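JOB MANIFEST
job_type = single_chain_structure
chain_count = 1
residues = 311
[input]
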Amino acid sequence: MSTTVTKTRDPRTGIDRDRAAERPAPAPRPGSARRLTTVGAARRALTGGATLVWTAIVVVPVYWLVVTSLRSRADFTADRPLALPGHPTLANYRTVLDSDFTTYLLNSVVVTAGTVALTVAFALMAAFAIVRDAGSRFSRLSFRLFLLGLAIPLQAVIIPVYLLIIRMQLYDSLLAIVLPSAAFALPITVMILVSFLRDVPRSLFEAMIVDGAGDWRMLWSLAAPLARPALMTVAVYDGLQVWNGFLFPLILTQSGDKAVLPLALTLYRGQFGIDVPATMAAVVLSTLPMLALFILARRQLVAGLIAGFSK
């Protein structure tokens, strides 16, 4: 419905008055409605097609990986790549587990857990200090230095890092991987935590100050619990980056008992020759810990991402 205003004269007073008169809105043309329906159907078809293509890109490599790990060496060369194995076997997994896979797995767990713990602890303290002293020049300069770290590629500083690790006498140790990995994970972690803590009401901090709480008490009793979704998000993100890291283990270690899983996969390829199914079995086993972590922490991870987008 649409409304039109007309002027009428009152016969008793002679004064013009506005009178609203309603008239029916024009009905939509059949052609325009048909075009809208066609555009909506085409948009849904394109969205569905793009979803199917993306699903195929993600699912097909994972399917090939799992199926190949269940083949024998003879079946791998005889069957089609995407066909189900005619005689599935777990011999490849037994071969991997009978080797030094558990040592490589333990090394990856130690490196990932140590890096994530150091990164999250130092990033939380740095983000809290930056947010609490947001008006000071030192705080702004510190935050800009952390942001500058995002622009430094890892490959550009690998030689200075190597020389520094040699001078510190940490070469060929797990700590030689933990320290540089934590340093390069700090910038993005600090940026995310600063963005999250800036939206915490300052009245909460002022209330704790009135109660006599110091900075450490506010950090661990107020900032850390409120930032739990963001902490879980950056912990999972940093853990994935360190778990899949290859350059630092390759350059900063050389002993077989100090190798982590990404580096050990290259050793398996050399150990098994062209035994691709055994290598795929090692890849499947190396992805299970992070997959289990993602499943257990998915609620906190999604909550942290939603909180970040809503802010």
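[summary]
The mean pLDDT is 80.
Residues 30-69 form the longest helix (40 residues).
exit_status = 0
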